[in-house]
Amino acid sequence: MEPREFPQIEQQLAPVFERHGREANQLLQILREVQEIFHFIPPAAITCIAAHLGVPRTRVEGVAGFYSFLSLKPVGEYRILFSDNITDQMQGNPELMRYFCHKLWLEPGKVSEDSLLSVDSTSCTGMCDQGPAALVNGWPLTNLDHERLDLIAELIRGRKPVCDWPPRLFEVKDNIRRSGTLLGEPFAPGAAIKATLARGSAATLLEMEASGLRGRGGAGFSVARKWSMCRASPGEQHYMVCNADEGEPGTFKDRVLLNSYADLVCEGMTVGARIIGATKGFLYLRGEYRYLLNKLEQVLARRRAAGLLGRNILGETGFDFDIEIHLGAGAYICGEESALIESLEGKRGRPRNRPPFPVTHGYLDQPTVVDNVETLACAARIAAQGGEWFAAMGTAQSSGSKILSIAGDCARPGIYEYPFGVTLHEILDDCGAEDSYAVQVSGPSGILVSSKEFGRCISFEDLPTAGAFTVFKRGRDLLQIVQNFAHFFAHESCGFCTPCRVGTQLQKKIVDKIANDHGTVSDLEELKQLGHIMQTMSHCGLGHTAPNPVLDMLKKFPDAYQHKLKDLAFEPAFDLDGALETARNITGRDDTWAHLP
Amino acid sequence: MNEKRKIRLATCSLAGCFGCHMSLLDIDEKLFDLLGMIEFDRTPFTDIKHCGPCDIGIVEGGVSNAENVHVLKEFRKHCKVLVAIGACAITGGVPALRNNIDLWDCFQEVYLYEGGLEGNQIPNDPELPLPFDKVYPVYEVVKVDYFLPGCPPSADTIWKFLTDLIEGREPKLDYEMLRYD
Amino acid sequence: MGAPAMSKTITIDGKNVPFQDGQTIMNAALAAGVYIPHLCHNPQFEPHGSCKLCVVSVNGRNMTSCTMPAAEDMVVANNTPELNSDRKALVQMLFVEGNHICPACEASGNCQLQAAAYYLNMLSPHYTHFYQPRAVDASHPDIFLDLNRCILCELCVRASREVDGKNVFGISGRGIGTRLVVNAASGRLGDTNFAATDKAAHVCPTGTILIKRQGYKIPIGQRTFDHKKISEVQMEPMEPDHE
Q1: CATH architecture of the region C9-79
Q2: How far apart are CA C20 and CA C7, in angstroms?
Q3: CATH numbers and ranges of domains, chain B
Q4: Of A395 and C242, which is predicted with more confidence?
């Protein structure tokens, strides 16, 4: 299907190629721009890019087909993607999307006949504290309501360029509600680098070790160990990567760190680079946070001007390090470090086989450290203020503080920094959550905690978390919440391994079946068996954790699904009467024999 | 010796080709042994139209239309043990090749383009079973107790399976008896 | 340099299996005559690790044996009822994901997906069928490409890249939409430089890539897996013990 001809494609792409060069690593960045120009990736562009980069066409088509924000079929000149995270859903996004579509005579997933507009949903855009949210051509819209959608509809009908829309539509607040040492104390750019240079790399690594700092992305690996392993790995180049692909639904702390604490993050990267011996760093910014790109580029420029990035940093001969920002394009899996590295290399975000691990064979097969945004901010503090200071906070296994992204049923959603060890009770009190029924800690891949467990505490020993903290009050339909998560995983599975690619889909189908009042006890057994297969046979963490919400619900929240179950041992896998609908329409029949009970 | 009550057995073909039934007949002289152990209820061999209470129901063919569902549900209701026999019952089989084709295209091809019948009309007679959008395997519509794959399973396979089942053993197929083609 | 030292060993189901540094569990096992079920693995190409049939339990942790290097002190459980039951579930997933209509497929009897299902005693696909419409591409003069049967093992991708040096095949899409694509703007195999003599034309474990005009040359009943188990065929001459 060739929807349009592109005779001028070479000329049209020339400036894009000019900006990104001929390295195949730039493929994803090139494709992002092509999408912006044409509102899809035309076959002619794929051929042209392949020739320009000297890679097979299949490689380009493979990448173009992988990322949600790229599309092989035309989307509208204006593309509105409503965030379908559970918090956006609770704030009314499904109804708002219907309202908007109805207003503009449009069907979700389709393009308007004049190619002007398309509307669809997308995974969590990281605006849970100020939703309902959406993206228009990649730019975040917050606090949506009917009034705002009316205005947006008007702007689109008037074909007003998105850059000229009223800024209030795009306002993103930090919403920092509780600060600790990481967010609250002043930080002078350069302090951590100076301290590191004065102390020396080996001694700074010892400070990292003394701090007990563990990765904030969820897995909790020791930062000192990761850095020393990378430092000890031989390679032509070492790389320092900041993982800002904050895709876990319900998490938005990195958004705030990058918006208001970018110096701290860059400084952490620079300290790390000094220790592992990297001259090049990448900040992998999720596509949803594209709006932060210019601001971040300004921070980098300012730091270069101040001698905090670039050659001979702070006058230290041979201390060269610079940071390049790479944009993602809508793929949760790229938060997995090896998938992120693949994506940095301009490939499909497919997790690698391990071993070897990135610390020995990462970006371009060279020793690479990938650290979470918050981890790097902590590292900068530790480099400046020492390890013991940091270790004095928190619990035995979890030193320091943790930033939580709190959203859902509470009066004051936003960013909360706590020392590790804080209980859920305490957090719920602080954020003004009343009559809470459950909390999803660390997002869909984390743990669904029931009210009986609110005495548990945030820590690697008890409830480890990457930061998401989504509150559900009594009366919420937990099955609907779990259904939302099941859909999320099915949408985000990379498709590489059988158990995750197929298992997440089967899980989705069965949860849907139960939610649609057709579930039976045997479907529950089926969910457990599927969960077991995904947990034990999958290729990476996505598959391993994809059944978590379902299994937690089955174990802890029988009330959420028991009443939905049919009092039968078996129910058909599909809607029998619905499967006759097509033939009824074709034949015009509506007699008794044209229906099934 | 007590006269053992005969096992009552029913068979039917939904969206299938009766090949599995033919294969059952291919057990040849063992049919006499079989009839010593079982008596038939509804099957194409007896021409009984509706299934009564049975011990074993054997279903050939996939579920392609509304009538198939009525027959299948009747079997499930009346048979203690339900067996799906053959590729069509188990996966949809050859009829499921139509699953790749839009139903409207199927109707057009058959009734509108080919011509001949009643001035090229799509029939809407309630007596005609209304087709599903896809052909489904039996186990997606009712609970199935045993599966006997093959297209068709060979007479020897059917004989082995049935004698195991009738004599109260868990049916077990040797490697060469388990086939999908 | 003498003969490679083979003093290092792992155990698989209690049997001592020697390995060389860098060798995967799978390759050590195959060399020692221990069968580990697999579909996407073929010793002629770079390991891939996507089908997950070859997952084994190593000191209690599940690992993909075709990509995991063997290391001393590994105690591997392979031919256990639990793992074989999970493997059967994976094969069932592949069956419902694609459109595998064995009686209508020329690869029947030579198909490794089918043979793995026989080996694991799969009596039905168990799960709900997806029945996704997928394309059949007959544009090439000598080869059919039937995506209904593709299990995304990427053997053709690897063979075309590593052996033929052509990159005829690639993977696009994501999740359940992941699909095999060919190196042509038209998307048609006939517009690529694929040849029936390519290695990639002869590595498909299912009936996705079929050479034309070869149909039923060998009758059903006389094909590779009609009388031999996949465990025998995939690792001749040794035959493993299994039920």
Answers
A1: Roll (3.10)
A2: 8
A3: 7-97+132-177 (3.40.50.700)
A4: A395
